[in-house]
Amino acid sequence: MHRILVIDDEESIRELLKDFLESKGMEVITSADGESGLNLLKEEKFDLFLLDLMMPGMSGLDVLKETASEKIDIPSIVITAHATVQTAVEAMKLGAFDYITKPFNLEEFFMSVKRALDVSRLQEENTRLKQELKKKFGYSKIIGNSIPIQNVIKFIEKIADTDSTVLITGESGTGKELVAKTIHYNSSRSKKPLIPLNCAAIPKDILESELFGHEKGAFTGAVNTRIGRFELANNGTLFLDEIAELAPALQVKLLRVLQEKEFERVGGIKTIKVDVRILAATNRDLEKAVKEGTFREDLYYRLNVIPIHLPQLRKMKEDIPLLVNHFVEDISRRKKKDQPVITPEVMNCMVNYRWPGNVRELENLIERLTILKEGDEVRLEDLPERLREKHHDESKPSREQELSSDGVDLNMMLDEIENNMIIQALEISKGVKSKAASLLGLNRTTLIEKMKKKAIEFGTSPK
């Protein structure tokens, strides 16, 4: 049942509207003045309020100003016998849904009420969805108690509610998209769109059109004008995954948008202004790409305003049991399956596996085990052979640094080793930077500079 508040100093109008709306199956509360009506709006839940403009004391416009100031997001219909164009415009600017003059036809009035209630329902649904998104992509959704992942979470909390460009790096499967969503949904742009684009998934000959849109007739097959991802993301966030795959010509155009906040559609001459925050991600070493001449240096610096590097799962063994339990609960709920019991032997095997596909590989494995398991427990024989191979046993020498036939990104690997050594030194020294620097053969200033560059935080010790 819809709940409606009528604010009018004329008792006859209050009673007329109350009787009429109640005959339509609605609950109606009435108020004889602006002050008491405003208090009701602050204290109780309504789907719509009807408001007379000309009242003694607090006028209808004053009530609208207060509801706007207090962010009371309830549709309103203004009803008055003193209609002027100026007051109508002012009421609408203050958020009124509609403006009706006395005398009015009750059925026409009711049509306006129904339209306003539709808006109220959509606003409520929109609010609920946004709350669900914020909950879904809250900081607690980044699972892990290890120092590297806690540093990432703290860093995201610092930078989420800014407009700065962010470059997210890390191996495939480390959670770059989750980090991008977490940043967006915890920023001031969270009510605006987050538009993703995987630069490696779109054929290079149409990627420009995907980014910037095109005009009708711009090329063969362009039968209609189409807006691109930048326009779709206006006032929101554009997430460019696999940014290293951009062709040189598109790198130039992207650089211009980052600098000037404007572009033209393919085949167009009209300059389009946009306000878009850019989050970019890559599993490649962009510094190396710059040196090799495949990625523009000026674009790299524009993207790398705030760098976030996501650690490999094999570097955070203590987080693996947490992730396993999280995925078991989440996947069992979504797939409507009983939760499998992960035996200690299986958990130990998972902890000691190298996880080349990182968190994504772990999640996919848990989904497979949840769906295909026989009985209540997951046994060693249920695991893929690669997890049970002898060289993954703790008692064997680590082969993490072996060179695969696919090659490695040496710079990224060395950077990861340096990160790990710094964190271990800080753990051993309990956060005392001078001691940690000594363990690493560095001076304290150099260590602090490296920690700032890598966004590593540890405790609060100033030493």
Descriptive notes:
This protein is globular. The chain folds into four domains: 3-129, Response regulator (Rossmann fold); 138-309, P-loop containing nucleotide triphosphate hydrolases (Rossmann fold); 313-388, Helicase, Ruva Protein, domain 3 (Orthogonal Bundle); 410-454, Homeodomain-like (Arc Repressor Mutant, subunit A). With 463 residues, it is of the alpha/beta class. The protein has helices spanning 11-23, 34-43, 60-69, 85-93, 106-136, 147-159, 176-185, 204-212, 229-232, 248-260, 286-292, 297-303, 320-335, 344-351, 358-372, 385-388, 410-428, 433-440, 444-454, and strands at residues 3-7, 27-31, 48-52, 76-80, 98-101, 166-169, 194-198, 237-241, 262-264, 271-273, 277-282, 306-309, 341-342, 377-378. 47% of the residues lie in helices and 13% in strands. Helix 2 (34-43) runs parallel beside helix 3 (60-69), helix 13 (320-335) packs across helix 15 and helix 18 packs across helix 19 (444-454). It is built from 19 helices and 14 strands. The longest helix has 31 residues, at 106-136. It starts with a strand and ends in a 9-residue tail after the last helix.
